[in-house]
Design goal:
The chain is mainly α. It has a three-stranded parallel sheet with strand order 1-2-3. Strand 4, helix 9 and strand 5 form a beta-alpha-beta unit. It is elongated. Bound molecules: adenosine-5'-diphosphate (ADP) and tryptophan. The site of adenosine-5'-diphosphate has 15 residues, from helix 1.
Length: about 325
Amino acid sequence: MMRILSGVQPSGKLHIGNYFGMMKPCIELQNSGEAFIFIADYHALTSLPKPNELRQRVLDVAIDLLACGLDPEKATLFRQTDIPEVTELTWILSCFTPKGLMERCHSYKDKVAKGLEANLGLFTYPVLMASDILIYRSNIVPVGKDQKQHLEVTRDIATRFNNAYGDILVMPEPQIKEEVSVVPGIDGEKMSKSYDNTIPLFVSEKKLLKLVRKIKTNSLEPGEPKDPDSCTLFQIHSAFASAEESQAMRQRYAEGIGWGEAKDSLFEYLNAHLREPRERYLALMEDPGYIEDVLKKGAERARAEAAPLMDRLRQSVGLGRFA
Ligand code: ADP
Ligand code: TRP
């Protein structure tokens, strides 16, 4: 069975855009192979968030994944920092990584171009990512385009290592998601935390209705035919809807649906789809002990993979026991 690995950055409260761009594809991995999904808290530390904030975000992302349908029986869900072997491998791999390779990485160059002083954690971020991937012998790593270079770096480092010590590391195949459709926010721009235009996935019904009512539309009157493709309401609906449902909605636009009715209809639709995950979310919020338990069991499984490989790697490079 193919091992599929994905790392999720704990980046705050989930909105509908994050859900479609990142969460849903990640959860679907549990049906296509042996999925290992981890919360990248070491990576998150590179931007030095406040301690309580970081801990809360890790808990939030675990709750989000479970509320949205991740099944811990099917997928192995764990916290990156629960596997200490990962940092040990990072060190070994960093000895195989030319400094120039890191200097060419966009993630680091972009920060420097913005005038930020990059710390060494950020500079060597791709080596930690290579370690995440290689330590679980991952076969497939689905990532967005922005992470493509990190996969190339991973393969480069693995090749250097294998050339020196024999074929020990499994060469991972990237699976690049080319077109992820962008979900617009209530102002019609890309939905993003930084634009303050989001519809969070887990808000109360009341708040959801309020946000949907705020979505920007044009000034066409009821009865006038409307263009669905330039309409934010329609695009948000389409993100959830089946092809038939979208087609039926197109028909209503052609028939001149009024904006008030379109908004009510979107609200009803979203609310029906979000009710169940919201209930799971609220229940999980009350039970951090359960979340800790899931992560602990996941870490045990992940570590059972990482530890024997690490033993072998130590021996290969000439570290570790004499007998
Ligand atoms: P934000 O823009 O709200 O800060 P992030 O940059 O933290 O979101 O994105 C986290 C993940 O969610 C990324 O994988 C990104 O591709 C996805 N994502 C964010 N916003 C959207 C959106 N509006 N539509 C689709 N995917 C999105
Ligand atoms: N860097 C990835 C991101 O920002 C998260 C990540 C860390 C990851 N380690 C990984 C993704 C290993 C895939 C495999 O989204």
